[in-house]
Amino acid sequence: xxxxxxxxxxxxxxxxxxxxxxxxxxxxxxxxxxxxxxxxxxxxxxxxxxxxxxxxxxxxxxxxxxxxxxxxxxxxxxxxxxxxxxxxxxxxxxxxxxxxxxxxxxxxxxxxxxxxxxxxxxxxxxxxxxxxxxxxxxxxxxxxxxxxxxxxxxxxxxxxxxxxxxxxxxxxxxxxxxxxxxxxxxxxxxxxxxxxxxxxxxxxxxxxxxxxxxxxxxxxxxxxxxxxxxxxxxxxxxxxxxxxxxxxxxxxxxxxxxxxxxxxxxxxxxxxxxxxxxxxxxxxxxxxxxxxxxxxxxxxxxxxxxxxxxxxxxxxxxxxxxxxxxxxxxxxxxxxxxxxxxxxxxxxxxxxxxxxxxxxxxxxxxxxxxxxxxxxxxxxxxxxxxxx
Length: 388
Known about the structure:
The chain is an alpha/beta fold. The protein contains 13 helices and 13 strands. It has helices at 12-25, 37-46, 63-71, 90-96, 108-141, 146-161, 166-175, 196-201, 205-224, 251-275, 309-319, 330-336, 379-386; strands spanning 3-8, 29-34, 51-55, 81-85, 100-103, 181-194, 228-234, 237-242, 282-297, 303-307, 326-329, 340-350, 354-364. α2 packs parallel to α3. The longest helix has 34 residues, at 108-141.
């Protein structure tokens, strides 16, 4: 299947960079160019476009104006749009309908990952919607196949209503079941908010949901940039894992980077809350690396989950941590010590686990970080990661 991608930017060098990157690595892609938002809308109305990569700041009509126009038209509102920006407020872009974003200067690896993941997700949704529509039509025309078609339609609806990793959803759609798999090296990350019960007593249910929604939406965004899979939330707890369903060797590094970003986000938000006289939220976060079993459970509503001692130990890393810190086990430390500034805490008692070596991660070592940042990798470190 050949995808058509519309690239919209008033800078011809950006066009050349994106077109070269995509056509070199992704051969089944066709590129169409536009140089402002008005041209982009005209092309989208007259061509079948699978994805739009569009700059925010452009003459004639900027990216946000074009995005709002496209999303307001039923013929183009389902085209996924990735916004390119150097300084724009991402919430504005998401409110306008953007599905994802790229920061300038554009990183080639990030570009390819976001293009492939966006197209994969929307391909799955389109296939499910299309299949559902076909089944609905056939169920009216062919009464003898009514029960079979209803079962297939329900399967498609279930896939549409449940959030699963793409690979797992494809297996479920094709086989009707998902085989449980053992992953020998993943990194499980847990968070929760210390004192949540006291905070919740001061807020209405609507306010609690709104506050948790702000935190969890940002956590989703952060892990999405580090190849980490969200597993679930339980109350104020958030659980995710790196290294599955697609196996990779960099998952201890990925999860630690994500954990540092999460704590940084919470710290910044708490500064704003203090200035506004609001209650602050204190985050504890723990990570452990090891073996898990992963699979799908449920009949009516599917849930992708993981099991094993690694999960329990990761939860103990969180509960034994401190607010504002990234607490990791000795096992995770073995995989990340070369690149991160870590503080050995000693052997800490963990419930039902005995004493475990634990470390606080303070950030990337200076030689691997962008100046002034503790969690943003520099080009040297990105080069190292690309070899994992």
